[in-house]
Design a protein that fits this description.
CATH architecture: Orthogonal Bundle
Low-confidence stretches: none
Helix content: over 70%
Mean pLDDT: 86
Number of helices: 6
Order of helices and strands: HHHHHH
Length: about 90
C-alpha cells in the first residue's frame, strides 16, 4: 500500500528536486554536444580523437548518462570549437 504522505514529502524534498535538476542538466549537455557534433559533421570517434575522451564516454554523455565536470564541458567545447556556454544553454526540449 502506498503511503501518500511519504510520497508527497519525497516529491517535495529538496534532494529529489536537486537530483532531477542534475539529471535534466546531464541530458541537456548531452543533447547540446550531440547537436553541435552532428552540425559539424563529426562522428563520436572523431570527437573522441579531437577531445581526448573515449568514444564510449562521448556516447554516454550524449545519452545523459555521464555527469561532466566543468573542466570536461570546457574541454569538449574547445574540441567542438564553441563556447562552453553553448553546451549548457537550454534548448527547445529543456
Amino acid at each position: 500500500m502506498l503511503d501518500v504522505d511519504y510520497i508527497s514529502e519525497l516529491i517535495n524534498s529538496s534532494c529529489l528536486i536537486r537530483w532531477l535538476s542534475c539529471m535534466d542538466m546531464r541530458r541537456l549537455v548531452g543533447r547540446n554536444v550531440q547537436r553541435i557534433r552532428l552540425r559539424k559533421r563529426l562522428t563520436q570517434e572523431q570527437l573522441a580523437e579531437i577531445s581526448g575522451f573515449s568514444q564510449q564516454y562521448i556516447s554516454g554523455l550524449e545519452k545523459g548518462r555521464r555527469n561532466p565536470t566543468i573542466i570536461t564541458i570546457y574541454e569538449l567545447a574547445l574540441a567542438l570549437g564553441v563556447s562552453h556556454t553553448d553546451l549548457v544553454r537550454p534548448d527547445k526540449q529543456a
